[in-house]
Amino acid sequence: MTNLDELIQYAKAFSGLTPELEACLKEIAPAITPHLKSVTDSFYDDLGAIPNAANYLDGRIDKLKATHLNWLTGLFTMAVDTEFAQSMYQVGETHFKISLPVEFMVGSMALLNNEFTLVVFKVFGDDPAECSKILRAISAVSALSLMLMLMKMEQCYRESTIAEELEKFLSISGMSRTLFTNLANAYN
Ligand code: HEM
Fold first, then answer.
1. Cβ-based burial of 26 (10 A; exposed 0-12, middle 13-18, buried ≥19)
2. Is the pLDDT confidence value at 58 over 70?
3. Which pTM was predicted?
């Protein structure tokens, strides 16, 4: 999908982020943002206990926690618009560049949603209807973010596989890149 406006509408429809739930995220921002540091700390404790995940974190936990907290805060304070879509695409590409397996992103969202459930019940527990709405809003915006990151990661991994296969083909066949490009253009 090339058009960012279409992309964000598609992601909103698929994640169930309605205007009502988007407004809910903004309304609860003042009450929830003071708890996001503890959500971040628990998230990194969970990640650190997962074999392989720790390898990606060594020596940069403090910087990553700050980056992560900033992203989490944005979920409640930023408009979920084309700029948001662009930024999640960028984050997806960053994780592709460090060769992060895609299941790390899916697992991360599950861990974060678990933490959020605890926080939401702690802060809004005396109002079940409000809790249910807030949890739906958080689940929708986290699914939307995940969808955008994974779409970009999938595109990057696919392109890198095609590029590797082309390299292999050129080296096996002895064909020059220029000749290949000319042939490919002739078939377009
Ligand atoms: C919910 C899932 C995640 C979100 C939303 C997220 C968010 C972010 C953001 C916003 C950045 C900065 C992006 C940039 O500078 O372009 C970042 C960088 C990074 N993330 Fe994540 N992250 C997630 C999961 C993970 C996981 C599971 C790991 C590793 C176990 C990880 C490791 C890293 C590393 C190493 C960087 C720094 C990359 C670099 O600067 O070269 N992230 N992340």
1. middle
2. yes
3. 0.90
